[in-house]
Amino acid sequence: MDIIARLFGLGIIIVVADRVLSEAGQKNIAFFVTLAGVVIGLAMVVPKIYELFTTVQNTFNVH
């Protein structure tokens, strides 16, 4: 549940930063901020997905 709250908070921060930068005419920087947010979000989620697959593999003894 903690990961969901972190992703939600990250999403809000990224959306606000994107809107502010876009309104200020800095669309290139807004794109890179959004891209960085996606990368950070993936870095948070990928270990959890790996953990899920490991748990499933151990549960069914698939080698």
From TrEMBL:
Pfam families: SpoIIIAC (PF06686). This is Stage III sporulation AC family protein. The chain crosses the membrane at residues 32-50. It comes from Thermoanaerobacterium aotearoense SCUT27. Keywords: Membrane, Transmembrane, Transmembrane helix. The lineage of its organism: Bacteria, Bacillati, Bacillota, Clostridia, Thermoanaerobacterales.
